[in-house]
Amino acid sequence: MNNRRLVPMIIIGVILLFVVMALSSSLFYTIATSERAIIFYKFGEGLDKETVIGEGFHTKAPWNDVFVYSINETSSDENMDVLDKNGLSIHVDVSARYNPMPDKIGYIHQKFYRTSTDDYIRVLVIPEVRSTVRQVMGRYTAEEIYSTKRAEVEGAIKTETEKILQLNYVNATAVLIRSIVLPEQIKGAIENKLQQEQEALAYQFRLDKEKSEAERKRIAAEGEARANNIVNSSLSDKLLKMRGIEATLELSKSPNSKVVIVGSSKDGLPLILGNN
């Protein structure tokens, strides 16, 4: 009797197990470390923008939809033709790096989702990057973009792109100009001009160096002349005679034998002859 009652329970349990296994993908889901998720409640409040689900194992009702977003930094490369300040066509290769703000993916989903959680890239990021690149490069000449102001152009593109994307809950970490291709004639003219400028700077440096050296020599010569004038003006006859006497006295103290010849000139300075 007990066995007859147990069989239906086993059958029901097995059926429930198969049902759970069949619905497991709808009941359970896992969010990776580099991901965040939001839920759309079909029979409730709809999209829950505020509740962002973090990493780990989670459960849900089978009729609710889970949308998973990667929050890792993503890179997009764009090849495009732009016009410079003078209307010259330039081909540029631009690389943009960005990621969605993890706690704002609900707002990104609501605004840009079409068929995939990557739609914000296609709908928002790429068009804004391309538009900003065109606007910024249109303020500079080809020569400035190619050589002297490349870093300034990159900085302006990043700043303006970052401002627009942040308003839509996306972080722009970098926007880099990977390459610039100019018409060969324009490129050759720019490179030739830059070379001439470098040569002119080098020539000016040599001139400045020679002028500095000449000025140094002039100052040294003037200083030496002033020193000689000071010495000459201080050498009187009495001073010379006194110095001669002092030197004679010092020599006379020497233990070596010597002969002192008294001079007959008006100075009267002696001449000392010694055997050493």
From TrEMBL:
The keyword Translocase does not apply. It holds the Pfam family Band_7. Residues 26-194 form the Band domain. The keyword Membrane applies. Keywords: Membrane, Transmembrane, Transmembrane helix. It is a single-pass membrane protein. One of its GO terms (biological process) is mitochondrion organization. It is found in: Membrane. One of its GO terms (cellular component) is membrane. The chain crosses the membrane at residues 6-32. PANTHER family: PROHIBITIN, PROHIBITIN-2. This is Prohibitin family protein. It comes from Pseudochryseolinea flava.
